[in-house]
Amino acid sequence: MRKKNVVLTNIPVSDYAAEGKALAKVDGKVIFIEGGVMPGDVVDVRLSKSKKDWAEGKAVHIHSYSKDRVEPFCQHFGMCGGCKWQMVPYELQLKYKQQQVVDHLSRIGKMPLPPITPILGSKNTVNYRNKLEFTFSNRAYLTNEEIAAAGDGVIEHKPALGFHVPRLFDKVLNIDTCYLQAEPTNLIKNTLREYALANNLAFYDIRNHEGWLRNVIIRVLTTGEVMVNVVIHHEAKKQREALLDHLLAKVPSITTLLYTINPKKNDSIFDLEPKAYFGKGYAEEKLEDYTFKIGPKSFFQTNTYQGEALYQVTREFAGLTGNEVVYDLYCGTGSIGIFVSKQAKKVIGIELIKEAIDDAKENAERNNVTNATFYAGDVIDICDDAFFAAHGAPDVVITDPPRAGMHEKLVNKLLEIGAPKIVYVSCNPATQARDLALLHEKYTVEKIQPVDMFPHTHHIENVVLLIKR
Ligand code: SAH
């Protein structure tokens, strides 16, 4: 069983595993399985890796289905990397995410835990994203049927507008209807594709770095605003204006239309300058009564409703009375800090990206928040004794690090500073558990609240309240 490319047959899937995979045990060996399978399914697995104690591979055939399985709602399920758990009923997804939090915190965290309150499920399990990006590519990902249809002939590359296929950097799956974001998203995407095909506009070739149409980033917000940013490789004024005019005519609900010229090899727009073609050039989103400016490059929680719920849990855990000095670490565009500002004496936000801090300052002003200040820089560099001395000892530290979790240096600093409360918001319970194990030296975990921001995916958000002993 050490060989690769072996196909194991009739394997009963017994559990879920990390990163959206499933798991089976064969002769004491753990097999991680990809490809839309769930516990209860019996499958054939083609191994791609095989070690002494574990192996991984892809399900190539399903013999029988789990009794819990539901019909996936999307035509692109199985090929698109987007919503891998559509076959799992939402209630079961939540149960599993809850279990993941329990497992991580108890196995890695190794500390006494309070009962974990049931995960907050998402009211909307489709159309829940406020931001979505599609990619233009001159190489569509072809289905097995399409390849078979070509027979012995040469398979011609077709243009596509959709999502990258996992692990195939140059292949894009043409997406007809996507259920991650409310309309007019599909209308925008399909209008662009139809127009580009009808007018022979060149879809980008990521291998040879040529072509014209690169990406489209769409924001559909609860305020009713729709912001679209079309990314092209180079300026071609007449062609660009014709395309953008056509889009505006077909989709009158667009409130802001921008374009960005990206001559670089990579897709990132963070070092580029989006230009407004129509509308004010940004949009606004609301959380409770707070309004946030969303520029074409701004970061914002991608599920507005659940983002609001997450912040409410965070604020409740912070237990503010109006007298507290609150530090908002990894503050992004300042949204958590602003959200709790009314209940705090003052808020100090810290974030690596300068543009995000500019947004945070603007957002504070927009909401008449006068007790919040924001600083750009690495938390490790900024959070020194002089900084805490200058801004006041924290009563509450709110920390919301990226997936990698907090740097050990910061954890040590927090232990040294010893704020009475830490609220730890995490998008990765595994690294959160690691950090909690260190914080356990001085802190007790008081409350744990998982929140589901991303239905049909394996992503989990978890909020933990730590109290200093
Ligand atoms: N709290 C925010 C954003 C959380 S995402 C919100 O709810 O919207 C995590 C943020 O941490 C990102 O904005 C990222 O730019 C920032 N970040 C990552 N590493 C950092 C570091 N070393 N120092 C400061 N900020 C960092």
UniProtKB/TrEMBL annotation:
This is 23S rRNA (Uracil1939-C5)-methyltransferase. The active site is at residue 427. Keywords: Methyltransferase, S-adenosyl-L-methionine, Transferase. Coiled coil: none annotated. Belongs to the class I-like SAM-binding methyltransferase superfamily. RNA M5U methyltransferase family. The keyword Transferase applies. Residues 1-61 form the TRAM domain. SUPFAM superfamilies: Nucleic acid-binding proteins (SSF50249), S-adenosyl-L-methionine-dependent methyltransferases (SSF53335). InterPro entries: MeTrfase_TrmA_AS (IPR030390), MeTrfase_TrmA_CS (IPR030391), NA-bd_OB-fold (IPR012340), SAM-dependent_MTases_sf (IPR029063), TRAM_dom (IPR002792), U5_MeTrfase_fam (IPR010280). One of its GO terms (biological process) is rRNA base methylation. Gene3D superfamilies: 2.40.50.1070, Nucleic acid-binding proteins, Vaccinia Virus protein VP39. It comes from Chitinophaga skermanii. It comes from the Bacteria. One of its GO terms (molecular function) is rRNA (uridine-C5-)-methyltransferase activity. S-adenosyl-L-methionine binds at residues 301, 330, 351, 400.
